[in-house]
């Protein structure tokens, strides 16, 4: 195994010292920043995530800040989700599309105030698109990447850990809502959200200088809770059907193909630059869509290229993410499947690096 060479282009995070001290064993690159992928092993991390509580350096979830009188108008131009009823204090999972209806990102939008939003982005250079739209339409809005780095607390004991550091009031947060909580004299946004199905919070750490003090305070407060550094877990996120931009979908896919039609209100999302294109595809419906796929047989290696999904000699889809699941005792996977073959129970083959492995298509994910 080769190493990733570090340089200034590959950004560290405010928590990198803590991640290294915790014995990180693997990284990926995400938004030109380091994202841990493994601490003890992916399977040990998975078990621990489901039983205890973990602290995740997800600073790679960079924020695109919109500030000014046109911030709300610009936000609605970016997404086919209708934002008119969204209130400050809410977070929305929002597909971001270009003028063809192609997915540019699948971030969490955080509405701080009528004239101030954060877009908590997945792995693509969304800042450039947003600045381009704002400039092209001469909008009265500032578009920046602020010094804000999310730290996620995930797992069944996250309420207990968080209440020890921020007080019992964090327990009252509802899913995808946020509140303001004090740490070292700073007011921080904390939301009940995160890239796992085990429950938890995301702390939007504003000011890199308090990154390590907060990390250390959480580790210290959670000693008896078996707290450990963790990271988005490949197995757990596939079981839960959490999509990974750049892996499970790209700019070549519409939100409907990604199964994100439930986050689109294309009829009423007036101003969305992809609205006309999406109105056309939404009427017809997609001809392929993301599905959970069980891959039978031996454990598969990491999916670092598309694996063809076959009906005999017919190529009917591709697997984009896959992992061996200890809890389901099978390989869990995410793939895009043609409509002729996407019904629950359809039996197909996947060409994995192991060879041809039988597979079953499902409609609902494992959790
Ligand atoms: N949190 C924050 N920013 C992020 C992510 C995150 N940016 C990058 C990446 N993750 C963006 N992608 C996702 C994908 C899924 C979810 C959030 C961001 C998610 N989905 C839930 C689900 O599908 O069950 C809930 C969606 C809903 O019901 O609204 O949470 O994780 N800050």
From TrEMBL:
GO molecular function, one term: methyltransferase activity
Occurrences of domain Aminomethyltransferase C-terminal (ranges): 302-363
Top EC class of this enzyme: transferase
Alphabetical UniProt keywords: Methyltransferase, Transferase
EC id: 2.1.1.-
GO biological process, one term: methylation
Residue ranges constituting the GCVT N-terminal domain according to the UniProt record: 29-267
InterPro entries: GcvT/YgfZ/DmdA, GcvT/YgfZ_C, GcvT_C, GCVT_N, TrmE/GcvT-like
Chain positions recorded as substrate binding sites: 202
Superkingdom assignment: Bacteria
Name recorded for this polypeptide: Dimethylsulfonioproprionate demethylase DmdA
Species, as recorded: Shimia thalassica
